[in-house]
What we know:
Layout: E1 2-8, E2 11-17, E3 22-27, H1 33-47, E4 51-56, E5 61-65, H2 72-83, E6 94-97, H3 107-114, H4 118-127, E7 130-135, E8 142-145, E9 160-163, E10 167-171, E11 174-177, E12 182-184, E13 187-191, E14 212-215
Parallel strand pairs: 6-14
Antiparallel strand pairs: 1-2, 2-3, 3-5, 4-5, 7-8, 7-14, 8-11, 9-12, 10-11, 10-13
Amino acid sequence: MIITTFNWNNQVFEVKALSETAVLVQPQSPITLENIHHLAESIEKEAANEIEDIIISYQNIVICFTHLIYSENEIIHFFKKINKTTAIESDIQKHYIKVNFEKGLDWVIVEEMTQLTKNEVINLFKEKKYTVAMLGFIPGFIYLKGLDERLTCGRKAIPRKKIPKGSVGIGGKQAGIYGLSSPGGWQIIGQTEVNTFDMNAFPPTLLKPLDKVIFI
């Protein structure tokens, strides 16, 4: 159910109830990766005391409030405040991630799917500058936008039970880095010794959304 709509940066968004304490924010037309993160930053800046958590994906934002949503009027009032908020310029950093491509686990499959040689895949993979799109599905997993379309590879029909921490892989039209050892279905083309996730650090992730990544 749509509770309200609001306009931000010349784009219209719908707000839908998810639970007694959470709403889903969706654009009515496709939005850039930069703008979805800038909107989330604007929301957090305007109403940080009212928000428990903000979860960002490529096109949607989930807002978890610190309190029960008492009425539609309360939500409407909340987003009226956001209408007046301007985007924030993020502190974007560039990261050079060294990869050992000899530790790729799926070269036979990747070569078959792409119809390219291993060296051609490596060269195309290193030529691109990637943008951190979002973090998930496990702590420290990094979704990277910017993969050359020629390297698109479908995920495994049966995921591996364990993929090593630091694995660099391709999943569909995305690249990714496993911040922890975990099950997974991406095609693994290498390993990095760069520690992208440390639960004892603050923040625990080395990379943040909109940061740039170059593989070497």
